[in-house]
Protein: Methyltransferase domain-containing protein
Amino acid sequence: MASDTDMAVTPTPTPASTRTPTGAGRNLLTDNPGLYEARFPDAGRLAGRWAEDCLRRHDAGRRVLDMGCGTGRDAAHLHHAGRRVTGADLSEAMLTHARAHHPGPAYVRADLHRFDLGQGAFDAVVCLDSTLLYCHTDDQLDGFLSSCRRALTPGGLLIAEMRNGAYFLGRGDLLDAPAADEFTWRGTVHRSTTTLTVDRTAQLLRRTRVWTTDDGAGPVEQRSAWRLLFPGEVRRLLAAHGFELLELHDGPGPRTEPPWHEGLLPGRTTDADRLHVLARVVGDRPTA
Ligand SMILES: C[S@@+](CC[C@H](N)C(=O)[O-])C[C@H]1O[C@@H](n2cnc3c(N)ncnc32)[C@H](O)[C@@H]1O
Structure:
């Protein structure tokens, strides 16, 4: 299952064997979407099923934008569930992979910090696996929400799933200590060492991840960051941008433990690692 990968976007796919050792500006997972799916498998399409469940529970129309669609697997799941889906991402490598491996949706390049894919063009925007947290600054958050507001029809839904800034309060055990991981892709062992630090001034969770492989390539260091977004901020931001908050909770969801499954209803707390946000554009919904 995908979980908050290093996702600084780069324009050109780079095979593992030709990666630059410094990793400057490059991103192993964004550049290699196949590796991303191998590293974070979601064979049961849990994230897509959860998103579809949210759409159904709130009676959303067919037109869905998956912002930060990554490899396209959630967008394709929603397409197969009968939605008319557009997947948008900034990474050309991800979009190329999505078109080839998860056909059905339209795939377009767009920046979540500010985008215009047509006024009222969608009945719902979904933004999964902490993609929203690549809005690091208040201006970027405002840009994202005003773009969603413009993209959505009156009564349209915003569905987001991401890490919870509040979870890191008082959790020094999660910070400043390298965590090791290892997996095999196409016969090559990939090892990563990940260190999280809190940048209190910027209100960011910064991550340094060093990749090594057993194919002779040098180590690749990648840095990325998520906005530390707190539940109270989410409430205030949504209200300021003309959204009515329908649900804000820490699970169950596609990346919680235990995970969501069909029939489970949203919780009421906002304490744990993941935040799930459902909000509706204020305004009358058009009659069919
Ligand atoms: C953690 S992945 C999540 C992908 C997918 N939503 C999923 O759940 O599997 C984050 C995605 O956001 C994309 N991304 C990062 N910054 C972006 C930006 N400014 N605009 C659009 N997409 C962006 C990355 O290319 C990547 O595909």
Observations:
- DSSP finds seven helices and eleven strands in the chain.
